[in-house]
Write a structure and sequence with these properties.
It is built from eleven helices and 14 strands. It is of the alpha/beta class. It folds into three domains: 65 residues, Orthogonal Bundle (Arc Repressor Mutant, subunit A), CATH 1.10.10; 121 residues, Response regulator (Rossmann fold); 129 residues, Rossmann fold, CATH 3.40.50.2300. Helix 10 links the parallel strand 10 and strand 11. The longest helix has 17 residues.
Length: 344
Amino acid sequence: MARGNIYKALLGKLEKQLGFLPEGAKLPSEQELAEKFGVSKPTLRRALAELAVRGIIVKQNGIGSVVAGSSKVIAKELVFLCHDIVFFADSLKTFSLAASTANYLPSIIPLAGDAAGQERIIATAYARKPAGIVLYADPGIAYLNAYRQLEECGIPVLFLIRMPDGIKGNLLTFENAGSMTGIVRDFYKEGCRRFALFGAGAVNPLAAKERTLGFLEGLKKCRLIPHPEWFISNQNSEKETETFYELFRTPEKAPDAVCCLNDFCAGVLIRAFQTRGINIPHLHISGFDHSLLTAFLPHPLLTVEPPMEELGREAAALLIRQIENPEFGFTVRKLTSKLIQTTP
């Protein structure tokens, strides 16, 4: 951490400690505090001076510094604007814990509604002048003017998963395309040579695009030729989708692996086979997201577990680093996802 910004982190630690002391309590000596927090006395005095300006401590003749006002109120706020609070539930929990541990007030704000409504929500969030903002944007809305305003507002902003087009800033994401490539390569090692891609179901359109690219990259790495007629999405007609299902009545001519764009799509596929009486004991099927649904699927599934808890912790850590070290440049970090094999 830059020497000139150590005191910013120190402020939070001091505020947190003072929150446990009653009004009028005497602070430890400067020497004790400097040793406890591992800082120089000049840095400590700078932080104490700011606390005095804010009315949290006051110097009394013959006594020293004492707690003057309530330090239980957290002065710095971190806002998490999130379009999908269900999917990111674990991330929101760990973000909140990490923020509060660092003496920041975590605020979770659902980013819902149409474009105009989301513009107002974002504008209201930065009008509160928080210390920093995390934003997971609505994948169904290509662009908002508020994104540009966030970029220019002077408040540290961290975008989650993907950056809006034309915007520069901090980005924290996890493997999407790379994980799908890994699935193809794993199935290839297990002997699969005929791959299909299935996305007929509820799926994030931007995630679908990234995972499709990862699927194609996996085929390329394995030197396999794509079969576009085996790529099924919500754009296919009922007849085309039905023709795809019927392929599996003749296993030797059908795909021996189906990569689904998420676990829900995998559930749609497996249910379609069940309702048509199509037996698929040796078919390799993959999903994505390692959702609760996988526990109820009657077929083995190779799925991807995104690092949701780590995502929340890292979001708080990266944002706080940017706040306390404003000279740092933009950060782009990609977390690693895990492949999980589920069994019925």
